[in-house]
């Protein structure tokens, strides 16, 4: 843990110590000066610290939150200053698990950085050899949903000041965009759709980074949040419907209905016509919609595998393994801070996008039995250790207590 060091001769050195609340088992950091605690709360970590050391600004946001409040920023509690050393000793496991999960979340940047690299290399080889049909194994619709979901989740994590998660989502946006560029070159993605996607991605990255560095007007940020809410609520039903074309009629009706509903809901919220509960639900709908867009990418990919099993050889097993590893590294942190939305998205990415596609590849003899068993057993062991370690850190006797708090709140 670190203290805030001040230049000599200006303000006496303030002593800081962690304070633990015995009745709620929540770790909270207490600083002797509220002024410097507030200052520390809004400090940002450098990219080098996040990528290499896995340091996290989450250390002051350890208060678990209910599932319905996953979009809320974790507040810093500075009022509990009376706990003694006996309580500190008892909760050493909690402090250690906090540090470990933060490092895991930072380490997730490495597999996510390499996530699309094998697929990009494979696509490049197919393009250079003139085998454009092999790129049809990668559905552009699934990539689009994942890309839009990552862009929306970037806004979600920026608002929560989850620095390492912001880096992960940024890497996801950039790498997926490169793959979509290759699909457009292979004519596996319509050019007008690619141009529209490019404009949205460029605008989203600019707005998000300006918000991260506190260079963005609040009203512009509100407009962006309304946009991603409308875009997400409009795209999700349409994308889900279009995935199953031609087995369902090719229509834009789901998108039109959801778009109209989303616009009406946003206008009512802006005019103050919604109740506080309705406004709160609308705010959480944006982040949940982003998670569902990300989750649907796995469904679209598996549906493509089912329809065109011969194209499975166009997939990269290393890409699927990296997806499992990257999302798996995020699970302990999401469980520790009781962020149900984050936990759901990361678990789904592990199970369906990573392991699910490996199952398809194994069934069609695209990977060896040893590779498949090693990935499967490793994932099961990781989940088991994560839940056991979290249960021990919080001092619970049953792992179901941790899972119950994750879903329903403490």
Keywords:
410 residues; two-stranded antiparallel ribbon; mainly alpha
Task: Write the topology of this structure.
Elements: E1 16-21, E2 26-31, H1 34-41, H2 47-53, H3 85-90, H4 92-107, H5 109-114, H6 117-128, H7 140-160, H8 163-185, H9 191-212, H10 218-243, H11 253-270, H12 276-307, H13 317-336, H14 340-363, H15 369-394, H16 399-408
Antiparallel strand pairs: 1-2
Helix pairs in contact: 4-13, 4-15, 6-8, 7-8, 7-9, 7-10, 7-12, 8-9, 10-11, 10-12, 12-14, 13-14, 13-15, 14-15, 15-16
Protein name: Maltose excess 1-like, chloroplastic
Keywords: Membrane, Transmembrane, Transmembrane helix
GO molecular function: maltose transmembrane transporter activity
